[in-house]
Amino acid sequence: MTGDERPRETEASSDDQRPASGEDWREPAGRRAVADGGTEAAGDDGATLDPWGSATVADYRKLFEEFGIEEFDELLDEVPDPHYLMRRGVIFGHRDYRRVAEAMVNDEPFAALSGFMPTGDPHIGHKLVFDELIWHQRQGGDAYALIADLEANSARGMSWDEIDEHARDYLLSLLALGFDPEEGTLYRQSGDRDVQDLAFELGASANFSELENIYGFSGETSVSHMQSVVTQMADILYPQLDEPKPTVIPVGPDQDPHVRLARDLAARTRYFGVTKAYASFEADAGERELLAAAHAALADEAAERDEGGGGEPVRCEDAADWLEAEMTADEVRATIVAKLREAGKEPLRPRVRFLDRNATDEAFEALIDAVAGEKRVFDEHVDAFDLSRDEAEALAREVELDHGGYGFVAPSSIYHRFMTGLTGGKMSSSVPASHISLLDDPEDGYDKVKAATTGGRETAEKQRELGGRADECPVYELYAYLLAGDDDEFAKRVYDECVGGERLCGDCKEQAAELMREFLEDHQRKREEVEELLERADIELDSDRARR
Length: 548
Ligand code: TRP
Ligand code: SF4
Fold this sequence. Notes:
This protein is of the alpha/beta class and 548 residues long. The chain folds into two domains: 106-269 and 407-415 and 430-548, Rossmann fold (3-Layer(aba) Sandwich); 273-402, no CATH class. It contains 21 helices and 13 strands. Strands 3-4-13-8-5-6-7 form a seven-stranded mixed sheet, with helices on both faces. The longest helix has 25 residues, at 505-529. It is globular. Mean pLDDT is 89; it is low at 1-46.
C-alpha cells in the first residue's frame, strides 16, 4: 500500500504502527480528498503530521524546525536514571518534558498517560510505549493506559468484537511487560464517564474550523470521529482531574497535532493568563523583549544618575527614544514605539499581569484580594508589582481551583522514533513480514529476523573492508530498541563491531533471531501469567454494544 492510497476511515485493517510513507510531513498548504471524504493536509515537500495516516518521518530535523518539538538530548542530563530508549536517542523529542523531569527529581506528583487503538495485534512498536509508561510508573508517576475504542470504531471502522479481542491483547502485553494495574489506571474511552464529561467540556472550547485546519476534517467527516478527537483531548488531561500535575504523553510524533491541541485547550480553560508586562498597555512577546531591553538599559542609567535611589522613574517616552536610537527600524519596533509614545510620561515598570480569561466574577474578585503587595486593578486584568512570575502562576491556579476550575498544567509529551520495517521501508501491520507481533510464534519471530534486510555490504570481503551500515540496518534497530535491553555496552559492541567490519550479517542476524525467539517465548509466558491480574483489574473487557 502506498501512502497515497492508504485506507483511512473505511478499512478495518490498519497501519497502526504508523511509521511509513515519507510523505506524512506535509506542508499544511494543499489539501486533498481521502477515503472518508475528508481531506488531509498535503503539500509539496512532505511535511505534516497526520494522526490517521501511516506515518513515517523522512527528516526528524524538520520536527524541530517546523513544529517546535524540542530535542530530547538537551534534557537527558536532567532526567534521573534515564530509560535506555532515552539514552539511545530512540526517544528523540519532547514538548515541555522538563517539568515532568523536575517533578521526578523533586518527588512531586506527576503522571504518564498513553492510549492504544486496538486495531490489530500489539507489536514491537507498541512495546516502546508500553515500556515508557512502565518506566514512568516505576519512577513514581501515576500511570494511565487507555484503550482508544471510540477512535478505533469511528476512525478505523473496527467492529466492537474486534476491538474487544485486540484490547485484551494489548492489555495482556502491557501487564506482561510490567505495568502494575493496581498502582496505575486502565480504562477504555467508551467506558469512562468522567472522560466523556471532560470531553464535552473541552469540546465547548474547540470548533469545527479548528479541527478542519488541524486534521483536514471536512463536511463528510463523521461526527463520531470528531467525538473521538475531543475524547483524546479528555484522555490527555484526565490524569489532572483530581489535581493539576505535570503529565507526559509518550507517543509517536504523528500524535503531535493532538498534543498541541490538548495544550491549547488546557490553556483555554484556564481562568487567568499570567504574563509579564511593563506598562498599562498590552504587548506581545516580541514587543516585551524590546521593553525588557529598554527597561534594563534605562534603569541602569537612572540608578547612576540618582545614587540616592527612588528618584526619577524610567518613563515610557524615554524608552521610545532609546529604542529609536539603539534598535534598527522594523515593524515590531515601530508598533512598540507608538504604544510608548501614547503612554508618554507613564513610568515603565516590570510587573506580572493576570488576565481575566474565563474567571467568574467571584474568582476575579478573589484574585484581586489575594494579590499581595502593590497592585493595580483594571477591568480585565490585575498588575502585581511584588510577585515573581512563579508566585503569580501558583496564585492564579490556587484561586482557580478554589472556585471550581480545573487549573490544568499544559500536558507534556515525549516522541519516539518509528522503527524501520524488517523488509526495509515502513513497518506496517498489513505487511506481516515487516513487523514482529508480540503474539507471533517465537519460531516465526526467529524466521522474520533471519529474513530481514540489513545494512550489510554485498560481500563478506567488502563488509570487512568498509564495515556495515548499522545506522541503516533494521537488525541493528532491533538490538538498540529491544534486544539489548538495558545493556548499553552490548548495543554499542554490536554497533562498533558492525561499522568496524568485524561483524558479518549472517552471524549478527542469527544472534538477533535467537534473542527475538527468547524474548517472544518469555513475553508470551508472562502474558499467560498476568491473565488473572487483568481479570481483577478495573476495566471492562467486553463491550456491551449493539452489533452492527
Ligand atoms: N490516537 C492514538 C492512536 O492513534 C490513541 C490515543 C487515544 C491516545 N487517546 C490517547 C494516545 C491519549 C495518547 C494519549 O493510537
Ligand atoms: Fe546490520 Fe548486523 Fe549486518 Fe551490521 S552486521 S549491517 S548490524 S545485520
